[in-house]
# Entry
Amino acid sequence: MATQTVSVTKTVSVYPKSLHPPTLLNLSNLDRQCPILMYLVFFYNPSHGNQNLSNGSLFHILKMSLEDTLSVWYPAAGRLTLNPSDGKLNLLCNNGGAVLVEAITQVKISELGDLSQYNDWYEKLVFKPVFNGNFSEMPLVVAQVTRFGCGGYAVGVGTSHSLFDGPSTFNFLCAWASKTNMKAHGDLELHEPVHERGSLLVSYGHTQHRITEFCNNPNTVTRVAAFDHLHQLIKQAATDQSLDSDWKLKGCKFSEIGCSNQENYVLRTFHVSGAMIENLKRKISGRNNGGFSSFEVVAAHLWKARTKALRLRKERMVCLQFAVDTRNKMVPPLPKGFSGNAYVLASVTLTAGKLEEESHDAIIEKIKEAKKSVSNDYVSAYIKALEVPQGTLPPLMELTMVSDWIRMPFHKVDFGHGEATYASPLVPPLPQVAYFMQNPNEIRGIDVRIGLLPQHHHAFSQYFLTNLQ
# Structure
């Protein structure tokens, strides 16, 4: 590969074209869980439309369209701020601006190989502002456009997880892209953003009542399966004689589950074709697919494969937790353009031995039940449970986590020269989380991106790919 240097040629702040009156946006507890930037890199191969476009022209187009987009998505130009009375994060919509960076490299996209497989060189394709502990100085949206030696380019975008969840990130990027190329995004439906958190907010009086209730009876938090099961995993870890005595130094909070040892994880993408998924469905339930979704089938299969690869004792409790979008679970439903975080975790537990013995369809039924349990009451209890001060958690290898991006085809984001060849997430705060993404080359296929420890990689690959061929 040619010299791997990426040279930054320009860094600018981008402000809304139409400034919004300064206002304080109250965040929900779901927004406050992970106030860090999450990164995606979009790769665009050279084409007739972009090969003759100078890097400066492309940068100018992206800057102008981002200014337009921030006029409507104005919280993205704001800054997080700590409430001095309770220490909680809120969002000050102050027109502080996003950051846009221009860069060049002599590397050709073809030299990067399979774009779906994470490469730590991708980290050079995003702008990472230095965080000194002061949220008021941290931009919530950053982007870098990098021109490759072949004429193609990458757009690396970072968005604060306190600002957007996956669906709202997708909607924001589609809105920005539509301003860039001035054409409809085909089958991608755009909605006017609704920034107020509305029914996801917890009133101060209710908060104080909840804290008092929890202090009097800590078990009230177990009404939410995700917290109940997590509590059981913590008890299991605390009584494990083989656990390192300094786990408290390695631990993390609920919102950062499993963050320890992340420097050792290797990210790997597994391509699961539509034919593989249909084959697995037939093996599970005969000719008809039993009403199983692709997510449910692959999630059940992944849970079994990962747990088997860990070689846990049969009596160990293991847990599958997966994100559920609550936009249509709330009563009344959240607006279609809701721009904040609206996901909670659903949860299923078994012993490692029982998980290995259980059939796929039995596990799928448990996943379905967990999904169904996410009701308006579950979401409300979940949000209230996050009011309780978080303790430190030990490493939880028995916890398998899945995030479903199948309905968010990020590769379809078109900045004017066609869809992306690939849209690659960078290292997430929890590298062992499995991301299910739509395969850009096959709409029915799923790309599974997961972080694995080196000693588990071979076994997981073997168990996961078994029955999929």
The longest strand covers residues 442-452.
